[in-house]
Amino acid sequence: MPSHLPGSQPGSVVKTRAGRRGMCPVARCEGWEVLVKLTVNGADVEVDDRFAKSPLLWVLRDVLGMHGTKYGCGIGYCAACTVLIDGRNTKSCQTPAGRAAGKAITTVEGASGPVIDAVRDAWHRGNVVQCGYCQGGQTLAAAALLEADRSPDDATVDRWMNGNLCRCGTYPRIRHAIREAADTLTAGRDPQPLTAVPDLEMQPLTPEELADPVHPYVRIGQDGTVVAYSNQIEMGQGAHTGLATIVAEELDADFASVRVVNAANGARPGGDVYGTPAGGGLIQLTGASTSTKGFWDRYRLAAAQARARLAAAAAEAWQVPAEEVEISSGVLLHASGKRAGFGEFAVRAGQLPVPDGVRPKDPGQYKLIGREGRLRVDAPGKILGTTQFTIDVTLPQMLTAVVLHPPKFGARAAAVDDSAALAEPGVTAVVPIEEGVAVIGQTFDDAQRGLRALRVDWDEQHAEQRSSEELLAEHRRLVESGEQAMVAREDGDVAAALARAAHAVDAIYELPYLAHAPMEPNNAACRMGDDGILEVWAGTEGPEYTRMAASAAAGIDKDRVRVHVPYAGGSFGLHSSAGHDPTSEAAQVARALDWKHPVKLQSLREEELKSGRYRAMAVHRVRAGADADGRLTAFWQQIAAQPTSPNLPFVADVLFTGGVDYMTASGAVDPPYALPNFKLETTNVQTGVPIMVWRSVGNSHTEFARESAIDELAIAAGRDPVDLRRELLAGNPRTLRALELAADRGGWGSPLPVGRARGIASSSFLSHSAQVTEISLDDRNRVHLERITFALDCGIIVNPDLVRAQVEGGLIYALGAAAWGEVVLADGGQIITQNFDRYPVMRMQSVPEIDVVLIDSGEPPTGVGEVSVPTAAPALTNAIFALTGTRIRRLPITKTIKIY
Ligand code: FES
Ligand code: FES
Asked: In the structure, what pLDDT confidence band is assigned to residue 7 with cuts at 50, 70 and 90?
């Protein structure tokens, strides 16, 4: 490929399109005027010289429109932006476009050949993908490894892949898939290239469709395709695959013919047709690990009804009784030899009434539910980089906005000097908004350069001025004094029982603010149509909240807002926000520009972390007692934390009652154990720090305190921690079974080599679970996670492998938070945690072997996506105590002992 413009020679002058002087990006000879000429996926392309110093990432995405390469941090800490440059995996956010001139750039869209095909095939068959946002970068990095080494050992894989972050915790499957791909290549097998179908988008439903029992949920196209409109958004948890399985099962459809789309309809009088369990049935809200629960009754029935209509339509056409029409794998059959695909009767079936008495199948009839072998329906597009996330939304005439948020929560812009920002090429406007100042540019890079040139004086009069240490001290003071404490539950006489106890524990447990940090930073886009309808794109967990935020920011009625929900590149609760989020910011900016342009509000990672909505800081005090025989006789837990549910309209009506936030108290108010004298008190702490639900909500801290205290009491009373839990779980057979299985499979009680130990914790959060964590200590006094055994009873399992994947991901997410997670406010309240350099998360090298034991159950399905989070920290800290004698009562653990 030529390094310079065609026909140019060193020393010559070449005109640029813009007529500006530039620097040759390759030869670096001042005095040249050039276009930057790149070779991307084998094609020569030219971009304006003003992009020579721009990160290649943004040139690919915003100038060339190639969205498979993703932004995760912009500072070289995540590798979501991985491309191959001359075959080497390279972080494109750290590579000026000009430096890539003259080299072969390969992006996820253009990668081809036997190695990447083997990688993609292994990724797909291994159900590696969750949210998928990181996976383009992961697969390119893996392919580069296998190009260099056809049989890398695990240590080599870990080292090579350690730079590629995955917030969904797909690392164990990546390790496995690389091994599989290596085997394929060394055996000379030839995998077929993966293909993906384009994403579908939901069209608004007509009133007639809304009134139909089936149409809002399941549609059958004339081509035989089955489309399911998912009331749970897909953010990595596998909801779409679960729904496809349920619908295919009840319809007796071919699983491969089922497509799933994120639905978004909006609340109507009488409730939203997509109302979900997390939204109390009133609004559509994905959360609380209720996706399968949310599908279970409604979608099984809707699919069974669709099946009955198809059979009725075929019976009508074939002049036979409907009962004689059989359906199997998407084909309608009659003993007379007649047969047809679904598409043939799709239109007529949709016109027929639903026959009376249609019921979903009995579990004994299942052919798909509960069986191994289902591959994720959303995986191919995510592996191939064709899936559209919010960050990828592109609209004609669209501008990109980034927001500089205040350095302290509650500060406001007092004076803005935008002259330098506006002088940056490509910057079109600077707009103060409610919580910061937005810089608008033609591309993200333009806007980001403008943001860096912006000068703002902040009015900090009403800002939160306390450091995180001061806030923690205030939480501690409140919990110790019992000031403002509300009794959430009281059984027996805990004070008297404690006074009589032969063994006692009185301990304070402290947990910091945590960021969600999904791999896709929080984004939104909006466009005002000529018809006065504001369209919004956001990977939101709560489309109704998004509608509310957009209508408030735009100053229009909610009914004039239409929400599109693209795939979310993770969320973990962050996208539950009902305000203070990019949807509101995008609408504020577009409104300030008189709605002349669609606007994409794209969060910089550091601005997302700076804008709060953290998991609340929490301090617990637990006093527990046991009698002389070591039987637990008293348990008194006090919590001081900022309440979470008031941030969630509708939900708060149910979960914030009598001054108690039951979201905060979750896991403490409903412990899995029979605790004879029990008291739970909560104190609502007021701070200026915005908080939001975080994966497993209150249980993420309440169970750390409870499971640590139970361990402490067992040891104080000379009891084995499993024995004590077994006794307390006598009335909770499902959790007891999980405990027994985890202990058995995890080797509890069996001898370990010197320098190793195990810890245990159990939980009834959403399902029934227990885990054993085995650790070791190296000669530098660092804890290594060796092995986790996790036993789970989550009722009927729809897709076993996806359940295992969620458990693995939840453990890795939670272990990273327990080990290193902490958002820090410095003296004066300055937010200093802003990117992955200061918010370490788990990487490949730290991931233990994980054994997930699934328990057979005929009970209705319960939660999976969050169930492994609450016990991850206490099982680890209990193991650390067993190994070192050091009791960790404050997280993150690295404040006390290093984690490898
Ligand atoms: S390393 Fe490039 S976006 Fe994170
Ligand atoms: S699959 Fe890796 S971040 Fe979601």
From this structure: very low
What confidence score (pLDDT) does residue 294 get?
Answer: 75
In terms of Cα–Cα distance, which of 549, 694, 558 is closest to 617?
694
Say how far apart CA 599 and CA 527 lie, in whole Å: 7
Could you report the per-residue pLDDT of 275-317, keeping only the tens digit for each?
Answer: 877 777 777 888 877 778 778 889 999 999 999 999 999 999 9
Q: How confident is the model at residue 18 (pLDDT cuts 50, 70, 90)?
A: very low
Asked whether 893 and 899 are in contact (CB, 8 A), the reply is yes
CA of 130 to the centre of ligand 2 (A): 6
> b/e map of 606-623 (b: 16 or more CB within 10 Å)?
bbbbbbbbbbbbbbbbbb
In ligand 2, the atom with minimum distance to the C-alpha of 138 is 2
The per-residue pLDDT for range 189-199, each reduced to its tens digit, is 989 899 998 88
Q: Which of 233, 519, 843, 844 to mutate to test the pocket of ligand 2 (most atoms within 8 A of CB)?
A: 519
Query: Half-sphere exposure of residue 629, counting CA atoms within 13 Å on the CB side?
Result: 4
Measure the CA–CA gap between 478 and 844, rounded to whole angstroms. Answer: 39
pLDDT score recorded for residue 282: 75
> Max CA-CA distance within the chain?
94
Task: Please say whether the beta carbons of 44 and 38 come within 8 A.
Answer: yes
| Unique residue bearing structure tokens 């920011």 | 553
C-beta 134 within 6 A of ligand 1 = no
Residues 6+ apart with CB under 8 A from 673: 632, 710, 725, 728, 729, 732
Residue 392 CA to residue 69 CA, distance in Å, equals 10
CA distances from 628 to 428, 503, 706 (A): 75, 7, 21
C-alpha closest to that of 635 among 682, 664, 683, 677: 677
Tokens encoding 791: 């036993």
Q: Separation of 86 CA from ligand 1 center, angstroms?
A: 19
pLDDT digits 0-9 by tens, 367-390: 999 999 999 999 999 999 999 999
**Residue 269: cis peptide before it, omega within 30 degrees of 0:** no
Distances in Å between the alpha carbon of 239 and those of 217, 279, 371, 501, 793? 14, 16, 16, 48, 18
pLDDT at 1: 30
Looking at residue 368, the DSSP 8-state letter turns out to be S
Q: Identify the pLDDT of residue 205.
A: 81
Q: How far apart are the first and last CA of the chain?
A: 45
Q: Is there a contact between 534 and 587 (Cβ–Cβ < 8 Å)?
A: yes
**Protein residue with least CA distance to atom 4, ligand 2:** 131
Cβ(476)–Cβ(510) below 8 Å? yes
Residue located via tokens 């799709």? 346
Which residues make Cβ contacts (< 8 Å) with residue 840, sequence separation at least 6? 816, 819, 820, 821
Residues in the chain: 900
Q: What is the DSSP letter of 231?
A: S
Burial of 494 (0-12, 13-18, 19+ CB in 10 A): buried
Q: Is 681 exposed, middle or buried (0-12, 13-18, 19+ CB in 10 A)?
A: buried
Residues contacting residue 828 through CB under 8 Å, at least 6 positions apart: 408, 465, 467
What is the mean predicted confidence (pLDDT) over 834-844? Answer: 96
pLDDT tens-digit readout, 139-186 = 999 999 999 999 999 999 999 999 999 999 999 999 999 999 999 999
